[in-house]
Each structure stands twice: as structure tokens, then as C-alpha cells.
Amino acid sequence: MGKQVNAPISPWRFRIVVGALFVLALLLVWRTLTLQVLDVDRGYEFLQGQGNARTNRTEVIPAHRGMISDRNGEPLAVSTPVASIWANPQELKGAKSEWPRLAASLDMTASELSRRLERYNGSQFMYLRRHMAPGAAKQIMQMKVPGVYLQREYRRFYPAGEVTAHILGFTDIDDRGQEGLELAYDEWLNGTPGRKQVLKDLYGNIIREIDAGEAASPGKDVQLSIDLRLQYLAYKELKAAITKTGAKAGSVVIIDSESGEVLAMVNQPSFNPNNRSQLVPDAMRNRAVIDMFEPGSTVKPLTIVAGLESGKYEPDTIINTNPGYIKVGPKLLEDHRNYGSITVADVLKKSSQVGTTKIALSLDEHDVWGVFNRFGLGRSTGSGFPGESNGMLPNRPKWRPIERATFAFGYGLTVTNLQLAQAYSVFANRGMFQQVSLLKRTEKPVKQQVISAKIARQVVDMLEEVTELGGTATRAQVDAYRIAGKTGTSHKAEAGGYAKDRYFALFAGVAPASNPRIVAVVTIDEPHGDYFGGLVAAPVFSKVVSDALRLLNIAPDNLEPADPKPKVKGDSAA
């Protein structure tokens, strides 16, 4: 075999190879410069931006809503941390094998999850489950399903449940106020979310925090005037009364007469704001401030005020109610029985329709309206509750006699439970009117003298006789305390007139009568069986006011044994 001879490399080929390698080296250097140093089209800034877009994220820091508490600091509405699971449908579609396991952890079927993903086709965001317990959400995140992420939020919780539901209202799933004081003070309670920059890995897990950003600002707290202890007791008594009488609904309002603060406001039926899955809309209404009704005989004391102010009457002035009825125009107005000649005080004590009519018709036709207006009827109480009704106080240029008569004993006008309580606080405040408040007051309220202190005291003394033996409200008595108040039983309006068998049973009063501190109004809507205010509403008043006097540590003013409480027919006034 001959010896192999290596042919010499052609110089021009060598130069081509070396040149090509040199050009490649230059291209690599240039590309490195464009990627790392020079800012050219799609250069280093573009690439850094793309990288950051895939790893750097702006995380929202949820802000908890302000707490609502009662006057003693007891929490009524608090925000608790929860977790929400969301997904990027575009990423989750690529992990179809994980769908059955993920769906099972979310208490849904794989087909249901598939349908939801289809609905969000083209989107980058969808909620899978909101407001989960943090522990349950953590278990789902440990599955590391691509495209599934966790978001921290807050959920509103109401410790007292249905007892305070009508006052507080509730928030929606995004923690924004929807009803009640949650809505009224939404801007005050609502916090401002913060933001921070974080670095995430491929699976969406936070590796480290890049920039603290802006801290979350929690909402401001709200302290109500409500005393939760009294709220519970009033709710219990009202619910028991509604159950016993088979009534359609009812309300109780209790006011501190000195400050105008609402100490309790309860309604039936109610609802649980923590579980609204079977919520009945009719149960959501705060009847104490929204529902209007004709107050019936509970406004007779205001008519008596007009009579006393006229100078024509004193508490002991004799009114002849014979023969137990009076005809006004085509209408015959009757008492429960013929009371004969009685005093003005007895007109209230017996709730005489005839006596009230005679007093009203003897006055100027606008006198009674003027008193009603000064007592706050026909306008807002100033509570600030959303949807509060103003009631109706008609002001006619010319009143027919029958209109004047029926108006004087509570027909032809409408009020709310809270308005009536505010009106009775004038008697408790020695003739001074003040707006009520659902918030705890830190300063003394502004008061306006609307009737003389003497007349206010005279009316309270007369109202005290209503609860004594022979009056229509002996069941409103409270052991060791003097009670002053007025029953009412009003027919409910219906198409074409008034229903013959549907009533509002009412009682409004103050305690203790010697120096009133508590004002309370009880309304029972459509009780079955007994329907008189003295039989249905007065006992509820007795129980809740007894609780209030004890809780507020108000000294007894009547240590003598109370009068017996005979079975009475109550207030038969229409």
C-alpha cells in the first residue's frame, strides 16, 4: 500500500473559513450587545419587560371593612379573612387531566367545570369558588393545578344574626353595603385596598416581595346606640308575642329619652344575614322605620295637648260623653260603652272616642294638626336609615268635621314606629323635641321646646292613669315602677275603606313616669284572636321596659304593690 500524501489546503479556502468564523463571532458579539447593552428594537428593555411580565405581579392587598359595634363595644358586624379560588381558563384548559380532581375539591362535577370554562372561553380570569375557609383553599392550592390561583378576601360576619339583621342590613359578596346601616355608612366602613409587587414562579407561587408598594387602609369603625343586651331581650319578647298571637308581623322600638339614642329596634319576621340562601324579601324590611300605619288612639294624647294649649281645658275639665256616641256628619262615632260625664284625664284613661271628638271639634281646625307637626309627625326622624318613611300628615286648607274628628283619634295620617316613639319622647323630655339617633352620641343633642313643660307633665300624669285600675293598659304595668302610656287599636286600610277583621295593636309609653328615661313603642300587625292594644301590645311593653329599666340601673319610683291586672277588653277605639 502506497504512502498517503496530505494535499495542501488552498489558501483561499482557509481565508473563507476564517472570515466566516470571524463574521459569526462579530454577529454573536453584536447580538450580545443588543441583548444586554444597546436599546434597539426588541432589545434588552423589551426582553426584560417580557420577563417581568411573566414573573412580576402586582398583588392586591385586601382591606378589611370597619367593625360595627353596639354602644358598649360589643361587635355586631366584623370582617373575617377568607380565600377565593380563581383560574386563568387559558392555562387551565391545558390541564384537562386535572379537572376531575379539581372539580371534586370544589364540590362540583367535571362536566360542570367544563361548562364554566367554556363560558369564559377567551377570558383570562374566572372565579372557581369564593369565600372559602382558608384551610380548604390551601388544600386546593397544594394540588398545584396549572392556571389555578388563590386570592385573599374578607367576608362580613354578624355575631347576633337575625337579632340585629334589620338594623345592620348586609354586604354583598364584594363586601359592599347593600341594606341597612351597612349601606348608609358604606363609604365610612369600606377600606382602601393596598398593592405590592411580587415575584412569582411558573406555578403562580410567590417567591419574594419586590416592592412593598401601598399598604391597605382599613375601613373606619361605627359605634351604634343599640344596647345588644336589650336588643336580645326585646327580640325574644316580640318573637314570643308574634308566635302566641299568630300575628303577621311586629316591631318594638326603645329610646333613651335623655339622649334620643335608639337602644333597641327589633322586628318580626326577621332573617339570618349570615345565611341568605333561603331569604324571603318580605322579611328583610326594617318595619320600624319603613312601614307606615294609622296610629289610632296612641295620638289622642297629642290631641289633648292641643286642648290644654287652647286654654279651654284642664285635666279635670268635665266632658259630657252621653249617650256614648256622637254623630259627625253621616258618621256615628261610638265609645265602648256610655261613660257619661268624665274628665279630660278620663277621656285618655277610657280612650273615649266621643270625648276626643268633642275636644277636637271645639278647637280651631288647624290646632290639632299644629301639635302633630311640632311632635315630628309627617317628616323624617333624622335617623339616617336608608329608605326611612316620612309618614303622612295631610294639611288641608279646609277640614270637614268628620276629617277633624277622625284625625284627632289617629285616622287620616300615617306614622312609623320610630316616629311615634320620637313623638312620645316630647312628653318624657318635659316638652322638648329632639331627633333620634342610631349612632352613639358623644355630645348632648339639640332640643327644641315645642310644648310647655307644664302641659308635658300634665299629659304624663294622665297617661299614668291609663295603666292603673280602670284604664285600658293595666297589663303595661311594671313592678316597682310607675308607667305612663297609651293603647291603640286601629283598623287596617284596604280597598274601599277599612277591614273589619284586621288590626294594628299598639302601645306607646314612657317610664318611669315620675322622671321618664325610657320611651318604647310596640306594634303588632294583624294579631289573631284578641287584638286590642291593651291585651296584645301592652304586655310586650311591660316586659321589654322592665328589662330596660333593670339594665340601665334606673331606680324604682313605685315601691308600693302594683294594682291587680284584671282581664280587660283593652282599647276599643277605632
Summarize the structure.
The chain is α+β, with helices and mostly antiparallel strands and 574 residues long. It has helices at 11-36, 44-55, 89-92, 99-105, 110-119, 134-141, 165-168, 180-184, 186-189, 228-245, 287-290, 300-310, 344-349, 353-361, 367-374, 401-408, 417-428, 453-466, 533-551, and strands spanning 56-61, 68-69, 75-87, 126-132, 148-157, 194-200, 206-214, 222-223, 249-256, 262-268, 318-320, 325-328, 331-334, 341-343, 432-433, 448-449, 484-494, 497-511, 518-525.
| Number of discrete helical segments | 19
The value of Rg in angstroms is: 37 Å
Given helix and strand content, the structural type is: alpha+beta
- Would you count the extended β strands for me? 19
Query: The biggest beta sheet, please?
Result: 5 strands, mixed
Q: How large is the share of residues in beta strands?
A: 15-25%
C-alpha termini separation = 140 Å
